[in-house]
Amino acid sequence: MEQEKRKIIIYEIEQWRRSKLLPEHYCDFLMNLYDAKPADKDFSVLGVSKNAIQNSNWKVWLLGCVLSALIAYIVFHFNAFRFPLQIMSVVLVVGICYGFGFKYARKAPIIGYALVGLGSIALLGAGFYLLRLHDMNEPSIALAYVAFCSMIWIVIGLLARMGLFHYCGWSGLVLVYAYLLHERVELGWIGAQLSWLPLCVLFCWLGWLLHRASKSAGAVLLLVGFTLWWMPELYGMYTGEISGTLIQLLLLCKLITAAALLFGLRKKWIEWVF
Hints:
The protein has 274 residues and is mostly helical. It is built from 12 helices and 2 strands; from the N terminus they run ααββαααααααααα. Helix 7 (139-160) runs antiparallel to helix 8 (163-184) and helix 8 (163-184) packs parallel to helix 10. This is DUF2157 domain-containing protein.
């Protein structure tokens, strides 16, 4: 008798799922309570459950086919479009990736990150392709475009609470700053420290100010500050403007200092990050 009741309840839950009377995760919870056979339980891959696929609406599949066909058409005929239409096509594809990435950011983080990452790669790659296609190869234009993409990634990271893209945005701006320094100023080791360490302090301070409002944003800014801590030496290694022996000595001193600070302030920054 108990088994019969369980079957009836499971049948009702499946009916609720198909008719959308209850949200998917409620149905999954009830199924886990009443389904005695583990083999029949719903499993998920990358946040998408088996039952969600089996009971999905035909409109979702149609939308997926239409979007796939649209993106394929844009890719194959991209060079034949006029410049404004090319820009609109890139915006459309990137917007679709970002839109669905935002949608899945909480429900299926892996899919959300993958879609936002795909959109970010499309934004950067298509932009450089258009610049080369239309003979706009000046370094200043490319640099401005990298800065533009970086700011987009910062905004996306903040809005979607995706720390990886938030950090990538700041990293892009750091690279732009490094390029401008290299092109316009010849720095010794003191100049390199003065060019980067104040920014390190600034970002750490901003992270501390923001960590109460948003721990993820505060943690990202702390990580950016930690990255900037090493930038004078990395900059010197890349440009060759600082001797290798001095760079090694500076790195050793900074490593000891960073370890001491992290250990001494561990009770504060661990709360800040976690």
